[in-house]
Write a structure and sequence with these properties.
By secondary structure, the protein is of the alpha+beta class. The chain has a single domain (34-220), classed as 3-Layer(aba) Sandwich (NADH Oxidase). Helices cover 46% and strands 11% of the residues. The protein is built from eleven helices and four strands. It has helices spanning 6-10, 15-21, 28-33, 48-60, 78-86, 93-96, 111-125, 133-145, 148-172, 185-191, 226-229, and strands at 70-75, 99-106, 176-177, 199-208. The chain has a four-stranded antiparallel sheet, with helices on both faces. Helix 4 (48-60) runs antiparallel to helix 9 (148-172). The model is unreliable at 1-23 (pLDDT under 50). The structure holds flavin mononucleotide. Flavin mononucleotide binds at residues 35-36, 38, 91, 178-182, 203, 221.
């Protein structure tokens, strides 16, 4: 399926068009177009402008309570990417894609983080901090009730949500991506010194442009039928 629209040919969002139409929506075309890219064209780089727009998606992604228990690490250094590849089953996407992003979750969330977050809400929304005390109490209560394993699981779920939005946005820009769990998280954490920052790697995502001879691009999607995955309760 070829798109004649200039915006997609150029892979650039033209502000003039956005203002007329109020933005572009992801369509089924984008979802069929995307696939987990196995072979990237290492000579093609994402423009800084488009890359910046993609990062904005990560910044505004939703999270439970809005707590954003994540960081997204952009690994630029090629030697470092080479080292990381060793701990990712030697998958070439790690070094060959235009950019590599490591999706990280906090190791834990403490009371201080929640309190600072509430202070930020009060400031941004220009409301009295006192008016948020119930909300603060609910958040602190939840966090206290969870075991560290439950807390960690919850934070990982938030990171995956950001990944999902990110993949959709990449597709909308016709930027290829390969979400990857096939890596040794502990080794990545060591190499990137993540414990020091109280972070742990959850999932990684190389992005860029597919190589013309990536045979996976032509494979049909394997998905269950709608009636197998959607349940209507009438
Ligand atoms: C969380 C997650 C982890 C994945 N890990 C890898 C991976 O390590 N290596 C890889 O080549 N593909 C990986 N994939 C890609 C999936 O195999 C692929 O998305 C799936 O087969 C569906 O195909 P499609 O995305 O091309 O439509 C991963 C996908 C997801 C969502």
């Amino acid at each position: 399926m070829h798109c004649r629209c200039r915006i997609f040919r150029d892979n650039v969002i033209h502000p003039s068009i956005v203002s007329v139409h109020g933005g572009f929506f992801i369509t089924h075309h984008h979802l069929y177009w995307r696939y987990a890219t196995q072979k990237f064209d290492s000579t093609r780089k994402i423009s800084p402008r488009n890359f910046d727009s993609l990062l904005e998606v990560l910044r505004v992604a939703p999270s439970s309570y809005g707590l954003q228990p994540w960081k997204f690490i952009v690994v630029v250094d090629q030697a470092l990417r080479q080292e990381l590849r060793r701990y990712a089953w030697n998958q070439p996407q790690v070094t060959d894609a235009s950019h590599l992003i490591i999706f990280c979750a906090f190791k834990t969330i403490d009371e201080c983080y929640v309190k600072n977050f509430v202070t930020r809400i009060a400031k941004i929304r220009e409301v009295n901090r006192e008016s948020l005390s119930d909300y603060e109490g609910i958040m602190l209560g939840s966090l206290k009730n969870w075991t560290s394993a439950q807390l960690s699981h919850w934070m990982h779920l938030q990171v995956y949500l950001a990944l999902g939005m990110f993949l959709a946005e990449c597709a909308r820009y016709k930027i290829d991506a390969c979400p990857m769990e096939g890596f040794e998280s502990k080794k990545f954490d060591e190499v990137l010194d993540l414990a020091q920052q109280r972070l742990e790697s959850v999932v990684i995502c190389p992005i860029g442009y597919r190589a013309q001879d990536d045979r996976y691009a032509k494979l049909k999607k394997v998905r269950f039928d709608k009636n197998e995955v959607i349940i209507h309760l009438r």
